[in-house]
Write a structure and sequence with these properties.
single chain, 279 residues, alpha+beta, Immunoglobulin-like, five-stranded mixed sheet, five-stranded antiparallel sheet, 20 strands
Length: 279
């Protein structure tokens, strides 16, 4: 009878093992994503519940007019909150531990505050989780803020603005230094570009008030102490023609190089010529 008893015990152990294996290999709980939905958030009502799936990402979207300024999460150990590297209206949430819950508070750049309740649903009979959730402000004040200018600057945009300001200042400094160097070079070289190579009748010049005539590589200048402002003519083929010039405190500035010309008031006239010019 002892052998029969041993067989019976062995059979019992085999049956228990088979039963345990059947329980262990039962079909797992598969999560499925819901279609995108909208939730209305108001200050006076309980925060909407967002159904999140273990290791699944749920995307929360603020109204198109807003960007996320900052986010506060109740549980930052078992939940991941990711707003990306660039300020936007999107934030992704992802639970790392099953059957956990937490809250999230989102502050937008327009000053609106949105509070949501997050729930991981692995043990829920309904295996559907939210894949994408659009937030709609339910309070009139919050809706009105959407049409106003932002009151907060997201940290990412602030850092970007700071970097752009530093770069712009550096570029401006470099440009100013380049302009100063250019101006200094021009000032140091300018005297060498002045030519006092005009001739005129000194006696007639003194009677009219003419003191000096010179030119650089672009302009012709006439300086004098005149009782009245003489008319200035360019002389070509022995014919005089009025030319454009600027006059200030006795200084004529002609925007070209003159070879020959004359100043005249009434019957007084002073002809001038460049020494290497042609009449």
């Amino acid at each position: 009878m002892k052998p029969l008893f041993l067989v019976f015990v062995t059979f019992g152990l085999t049956l228990a093992t088979a039963t345990a294996n059947a329980v262990t290999t039962s079909e797992p709980h598969h999560l499925q994503s819901n279609a995108p939905r909208s939730v209305t958030v108001t200050e006076a009502e309980t925060p909407p519940v967002i159904r999140a799936g273990l290791l699944q990402s749920t995307l929360i979207l603020l109204p198109a007019e807003e960007k996320i300024a900052t986010v506060f999460g109740g549980d930052t150990v078992d939940w991941v909150f990711d707003g990306g590297h660039v300020a936007s209206r999107f934030i992704s949430i992802k639970p790392k531990l099953a059957n956990t819950s937490t809250d999230i508070h989102i502050v937008s750049d327009h000053g609106n505050e949105y509070t949501l309740q997050l729930q991981e649903i692995s043990s829920d009979a309904d295996a559907h989780f939210d894949s994408k959730v659009f937030i709609i402000p339910g309070d009139k004040v919050a809706k009105d803020r959407l049409t106003d200018l932002p009151v907060f600057v997201p940290a990412a945009e602030l850092e970007k603005a700071k970097q752009e300001a530093v770069s712009a200042k550096a570029a401006q400094t470099a440009e100013l230094k380049a302009e100063e160097a250019k101006a200094e070079t021009y000032r140091s070289q300018y005297p060498g570009s002045l030519h006092f190579d005009f001739t005129w009748d000194d006696k007639k010049g003194k009677e009219l008030g003419l003191q000096q005539i010179w030119h650089d590589d672009k302009f012709t200048y006439l300086r004098g102490h005149f009782q009245e402002t003489p008319a200035l003519y360019e002389l070509k083929d022995k014919k005089g023609s009025l030319i454009n010039f600027d006059y200030n405190a006795g200084l004529y500035t002609v925007p070209k190089q003159l070879d020959n010309g004359y100043l005249t008031i009434g019957k007084q006239r002073v002809d001038f010529h460049r020494i290497d010019g042609k009449e």
